[in-house]
Structures are given as structure tokens and as C-alpha cells.
Description:
This protein is mostly beta strands. The chain has helices at residues 6-12, 93-97, 258-263, 400-404, and strands at 38-48, 59-62, 65-68, 73-74, 82-83, 88-90, 123-131, 141-149, 171-172, 175-179, 181-190, 198-204, 222-234, 237-244, 267-273, 285-287, 292-295, 324-333, 338-346, 355-361, 379-383, 388-395, 411-412, 415-423, 429-439. It contains 4 helices and 25 strands.
Amino acid sequence: MNTQKVxxxxxxxVLCGSVAFIWPVSRQPHFPHPATPRAVLIPAERYxxxxxxxxxxxxxxxxxxxxxxPGKYGEDPLWGDARDLKYADGAHAxxxxxxxxxxxxxxxxxxxxxxxxxxxxxxxxxxxxxQDAKDKTGKxxxxxxxxxxxPSTLPYDAATGKGYIDAHWxxxxxxxxxxxxxxRIGIMKSTDGGxxxxxxxxxxxxxxxxxxxxxxxxxxxxxxGVGDPxxxxxxxxxxxxxxxxxxxxxxxxTTYDPELEHxxxxxxxxxxxxxxxxxxxxxxxxxxxxxxxxxxDGIGAPIASLxxxxxxxxxxxxxxxxxxxxxxxxxxxxxxxxxVMLMAKAEGPSWQGSSLYVSFNTNADLGKGNNSQQWSTPVxxxxxxxHTLWYPSLQPLNTKEDIANKHTxxxxxxxxxxxxxxxxxxxxxYVSEYMVRFEK
Length: 440
């Protein structure tokens, strides 16, 4: 989501109070299969994060230090250049999440390259950090980043097919005269625990032919692309769960089919071999409906159980009213021995939506058969009418168990603290108001 989407969401929302919808323990939502785990929401002391966040919380243990990497970095013609991507340390998650804003440090980042040249273009947000298991110091990190560009920062290059053509471009977040962004996903590497980073290239992307343009793109979000990812390691691969916002074919105004677009969106999965993270360009494969054989810039297939049916209001992301799940946050739960996915639900333009959902996958090995697709139907976790909610994540606690096991947002125990971005009355806060306890 990124790009300060709270601006337009605040204007579009009809504010109707700040009462949170909480499932009491005695009235937890019904999970359709007896083997499906469930999540119990528990009201807790309110925590307000003190630095900028508009992304999944990337984090890792560097030795006995818990380090987080929130924020945004790079060029952005809509919102201005950003230097908000920072890191903070602590002895455990609770200590880090309570850091003052002046206790965050800027890492050394690669500079943006001029348009038309090789290098980093647009703005980036770190969404996940994979820690190289071969480095026993814990200092070798690979950051999966969400990247946003415009025709002005990444102009079309006919020789490579990369970049964007400034024609029939959809509206951006600051009004009809502004441009929507295109998102893609890349990899950076650090060998000093995240204090400095080197850009390694693009993980996956959608090209110009798949962008959804005027007159059909009225969602006031993205012109297309892939973004808002969460990545987890399973076996020899890094699995990327992400939002698919492109057209599942070649877009043309004369042949556009909204139902076809809807069927090709929105939470999808791709993977890359861990050995290829050093040089990721072109190495990833998307799920094509049967296997991981679609190209990194090709057409994949979304996770069917996470697609909102048309009968329930589901629709294309480029429309002003289509509903879709987006912004996944995936973790392995050691208590459940299952994967947990949190997500937001968009129900209007600019990702407007007041609810968060949870889904489970009880297959430890995401690479076997279609295990990566076997997610339970999402169940409502939190609803706050009048608010816009997005980027939910589970965070470890200040307990002996969580510290000893070096739990992070990627590996959790039975109980954790829930954080999410909450826009109410234009505040756009990253907050925690609840704990989540998982039950078998």
C-alpha cells in the first residue's frame, strides 16, 4: 500500500466512531474445518509506535540484539523524497517498539539512479528480512522491499521492455492531476546486520502491457504491478506472498474484462531459491495454478481460497468498489505447527477498509504439491468501523520463551502482540491494542 495512502482514504471514509469489533472468547468465529486453528483476540494496553511505518515490519535478531527496519527511502515525485527508512535496537521486541523517534538510525542506502540508467529507481520499503543461515554471526541479511515508480522515475525503454509509458495514466492519491504508482518487489543485501545495504535487483514485477489504464482504472491505488509482500523460508526456497494488481493478460481498453482482472488478483505466491538471493534478477518463479513455473515477470495465479467471490462483493483492484484481501503478513507458528497469514480487506478506493482477517495453512513444507495454496478461508479478526486498517503483523513478547527462541514476526509462539496501521481522523498511526492467542 505505502505512498501515504491514508491521505485520500481519510477523505473518502465516512467516519462513524472508533469502536473496535472484538470476538469474545465465548463467541469466536466458526472455523469450517475441525483441524483449522483459531485466533483469540485479547484487549491489551495500547502501544503507539514512535517512528514512520507503512509496511510490514522487517526485523531480525543480530546476536542478542532485536533489530527492526521500518520506514521509506528514496525518490517519490508524488510525496517527495524520503529518508524515513531507519533501524532501532533492543534486548527484546517490546523494548524496540517503545523506542523514541530520536533513537532510530538511518542505514547507508544505495542512491537512486538517474532515469534511463541502471540502478535503484523510485522509493523502497523493507517488508521482510531473511537472515542467511550460513552466516553464524547473523549479520548477513536479505531485505525484501516494496518498490514504487512512475513514468517519470522509470520511463519506458523499448530495448528492454522495462519501464512505463506516460499515456492514459490513472489518477494518483493527491487528486486527478497526479499519477498512480506502479509497484514491484526487489532484494537488498547487508553484511553488517542492516547498517548498510546494497541493491541486488528485482525479485518480481509486471511490465507495461499488464498495467490497467484509463478509462478502466478508477481504484485510486496502483496502475498495476506487484507489492505489499511478506516472505518466509521453507526448505531451500524463499516464498513470497504478495498483492497482484496487474491484468492477467495484455491490457487494452477495447478488450478489457473486469471479471478476468478479478480472477487474476490479489494475494499470490512466488518463490526463489535461497542460493539465488545474491543475484535474484530473473530467478524467481510464480505459481501458475499447478506449479511454480510462471516467469518472474509473467502471469501467475492467485491463491483461490483468498479470492473474494463476486457474490460477496469481490472485484478487480482497479475498480472503485471491488473487494479484495491484500497486504499479507505470514509467520510460522511453533505452537500450532502451522503458517499464519494476517491480511487487510479493501472495500473501496484507495484501499479503504475497516477490517483485518486471519488464515491458516497447516502444511509445513510449502514446496510440496500445492501446499502453498492450501490456506483456510479468511476469518474476521478485527473490525473498527470508520477507520482504515492495513498492514497487520504479529510481534513477539517480552517473555523468556520468545527471547530464548529468538522469535520475530516470521516465527511466533502461541501468543503475540498484534500491530496494524490505523487511519482515523487522518492520524495514520501504527498501533497495538490487542494480543492474539492461538488455539488448536
